[in-house]
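Standup notes
- HV: blocked on the assembly model, inputs below
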Amino acid sequence: MLKGKVSVVGTGPGPVEFITARAAAAIEESDLVIGYKLYVKQLALLLEGSEKEVISSAMGREVDRCRRAVAEAKKGRKVALISGGDPGIYGMAGLLLQVTHEEETPPEVEIIPGVTAAGAAAAVLGAPLTHDFAVISLSDLLTPWTVIEKRLRAAAEADFVIVIYNPRSNGRSDLLAKARDILLERCKHDTAVGMVRGAGRDGEKTWATTLGDFSCCIDEADMATLVIIGSSKTYWHGGKMITPRGYEL
Amino acid sequence: MLKGKVSVVGTGPGPVEFITARAAAAIEESDLVIGYKLYVKQLALLLEGSEKEVISSAMGREVDRCRRAVAEAKKGRKVALISGGDPGIYGMAGLLLQVTHEEETPPEVEIIPGVTAAGAAAAVLGAPLTHDFAVISLSDLLTPWTVIEKRLRAAAEADFVIVIYNPRSNGRSDLLAKARDILLERCKHDTAVGMVRGAGRDGEKTWATTLGDFSCCIDEADMATLVIIGSSKTYWHGGKMITPRGYEL
């Protein structure tokens, strides 16, 4: 019997130039590409001219995609399961492994890391993540809001830089404002805030502000937006957001 | 006058196959490559046969490397300043920007994100970072230990997965054991712990353990090691470390 395999492939922030050589090779070597339709569309340049089967599906069909990937690999096919950013960070790696654990004879799995959305957003803003940071998703679809609140408070209390994923969950626009209010219980109004929509993609847009002035742009956040809240040490200078590591200059 | 530029290039966990196309192009297009000697050595395959000038220096010469990069760019040269992993995560991006801010007419700077050490280690271990996490460096060279302790406690209290960078600082081997003891004040003894040395590199080594049993391998940690401490939801299954996102299977 042929030996099938699922490669969970991190494709980075979007443009194919941010894909690693390893990820591109895994897609090239695969018989079948499975992914969320937006991420698959971004791979058009890589898939052009290939006879490869491509299965794309809508947001929310994550479990289906994983089950299909495992089923096809068990038939002996090489499957590239696409995950935007890094598949291990709010991505498909965990779910795929959970699905394989339902199998008596699971297929081989390889997880190929990618450039994270946080790293791409940080690069656009300057260097806000060069010291300790916490990564928090505001999506309360799979996590109780009380847990999210607790994490926001703890991260602010210990002066972490905070990266916020999914600032708008399920169409709800008030989560980010709620998070801002919680952070303002502990953080100063002049705490640096950077926001990036579509980091590294065409139409990328950035905002430079502070927690106190965040209402200037808070409603612009959408599902493709990442928000970075500085620590007490973070500052804006010359249009760049910087968290110093502590070197003497 | 020629227009110089510094590209701060993230080269990922080590092997050139984990470098993005954008990063490889920036190195290719540069007149001069500057970096920490280990990272420059890892680029041998990319630099082979080129007539490019390469300046490598020792750990601890970070400020010098940044100043040199800025000085050379001001002469009109294109400089690739190499930073392992992602240059924005405990990397060279922040320091380079700080150095440019000393200049009256700073050169153009581009920051090119890379695969982080955390992402590479997570991929090797399974999928420990698919939910909220905190990233903490134990290096007390540039950060007071009291701040590090406070962040460890806050992260454990709010049930973050915790990624520990620099588990051994300045040759001191007791920092990781101290961190473990602090975490055990709040975390259960059976909290999943994964450790990876040289993720993605030849000779990569992983350890699967728990906080309570961490003494089995805690002394194996070195400067190239990353430690991931699970949340209360993280578990080991089939040799893989998983933090479930919360999907219904």
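- HV (later): unblocked. Chain B touches chain A through 78 residues (CB under 8 Å). The helical segments of chain B are 21-29, 37-42, 44-47, 62-74, 93-100, 117-125, 145-157, 175-184.
- Next: hand off to the docking folks.
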